[in-house]
UniProtKB/TrEMBL annotation:
Single annotated GO MF: oxidoreductase activity
Gene3D superfamilies per UniProt: 3.30.465.10, CO dehydrogenase flavoprotein, C-terminal domain
Protein name per its UniProtKB record: FAD-binding PCMH-type domain-containing protein
UniProt xrefs under PANTHER family: XANTHINE DEHYDROGENASE FAD-BINDING SUBUNIT XDHB-RELATED, XANTHINE DEHYDROGENASE SUBUNIT C-RELATED
Superkingdom, taxonomy of origin: Bacteria
Domain FAD-binding PCMH-type: 1-158
Signal peptide: none
Length: 266
C-alpha cells in the first residue's frame, strides 16, 4: 500500500529520493515493476517525475532524440522519428493510456509484453540515464533502474519492422516483436531480432540473428520457424498455453524475418 508520494522539483531530487527507497513514477499507468519482482508487494513510496522537463522529440544531425517523458501518443503522432516506432506506439489500443504513458516509464517497467522495447532494441536505441548512456538492450536485460533522461536512436540504415498479435483489439499481446536488417552486396550483413511475450523480459534472439546473417535460416521457411521455436521460452497463462504461444510466435516472427529479408535484398 502506498504510504508516501512526493513530486520531484529536479532530477537531482528525484535521484536522491530514489536512493532513499522511492520508486520513480512517470505517467502513472504503472509503477516500475522491479519492486514487485524483488519484494512481492506494491512499493510504499513513490516520487513523481511528471513535473520535470523530460519530454520532447527532436533530431540531432541524423540521430533521433526522444525525451523519456514523451507520451506514447506524442510518439505515435510524431513525424520526426522512424515510422516503425510510431507504429509500435500505436499498437497500444487505448488512446487514453497513450496520452498518459511515457516511453521512459514503458522501458523502466521492463514489461515482457511491451510494444516499444523490441522496436527500440531493433533500432539500436540508447537510453541516456543520469549515470550515463546504456543500450536499451542492456538496460532491460540487467538490473538497471537508473532514471532515464532521454533516448537516442542512430540513423536508420536498412529496414525495420514491428509486429503484434493479440486475441482481440484490447487484449494483451501474445506476440510483440521487431526486427532490423541491413544488406550489402546481395546478402544480409547485420540483423537484430527482438521478441517480447516469450520470456520474463524482452530478449534478443541472437541465434536467429546469426542464422540470418549466415544465410542458413533464409534458405528454408520451416527451418526458420523451428529455430525460433527452439530459441523462445513463453510461459503458460490466461492468454494461452506454452504450446500455443510457441507456435504463434515462431510462425509470425519467421514471417517477419522473411518479409524483412525480401525488402532489404530486393
Amino acid at each position: 500500500m502506498m504510504q508516501d508520494y512526493k513530486l520531484a522539483s529536479s532530477i537531482e531530487e528525484a535521484v536522491e529520493l530514489n536512493k532513499a527507497g522511492y520508486v520513480f513514477l512517470a505517467g502513472g499507468t504503472q509503477v516500475n515493476r522491479s519492486p514487485f519482482l524483488k519484494h512481492g508487494h506494491r512499493p510504499e513510496k513513490v516520487v513523481s517525475i511528471s513535473g520535470l522537463d523530460l519530454s520532447g522529440i527532436s533530431r540531432e544531425g541524423n540521430e533521433f532524440l526522444i525525451g523519456a517523458g514523451a507520451t506514447l501518443q506524442d510518439i505515435a503522432d510524431s513525424h520526426l522519428i522512424p515510422d516503425v516506432l510510431r507504429r509500435a506506439a500505436g499498437f497500444i489500443p487505448n488512446r487514453s493510456v497513450r496520452n498518459i504513458a511515457t516511453i521512459g516509464g514503458n522501458v523502466g517497467a521492463k514489461r515482457p509484453d511491451s510494444y516499444l522495447i523490441p522496436t527500440l532494441m531493433a533500432l539500436g536505441a540508447v537510453a541516456e540515464t543520469v549515470a550515463g548512456p546504456v543500450s536499451v538492450n542492456e538496460y532491460v536485460d540487467g538490473d538497471n533502474e537508473t532514471l532515464i533522461i532521454r533516448f537516442r536512436i542512430p540513423p536508420l540504415e536498412g529496414a525495420c519492422r514491428a509486429i503484434k498479435e493479440s486475441r482481440s483489439h484490447q487484449a494483451l499481446p501474445v506476440v510483440s516483436a521487431a526486427a532490423w536488417m541491413r544488406a550489402e552486396g546481395g546478402a544480409v550483413k547485420e540483423a537484430v531480432v527482438a521478441a517480447g511475450c516469450v520470456a520474463p523480459r524482452t530478449m534478443r534472439l541472437r541465434e536467429i540473428e546469426e542464422g540470418i546473417v549466415s544465410g542458413k535460416l533464409l534458405e528454408s521457411g520451416q527451418a526458420l520457424e523451428v529455430a525460433v521455436a527452439g530459441a523462445i521460452h513463453p510461459e503458460e497463462d490466461i492468454l494461452g498455453s506454452r504450446e500455443y504461444k510457441t507456435y504463434i510466435n515462431s510462425v509470425l516472427i519467421a514471417d517477419l524475418v522473411r518479409g524483412l529479408a525480401e525488402e532489404v535484398l530486393k
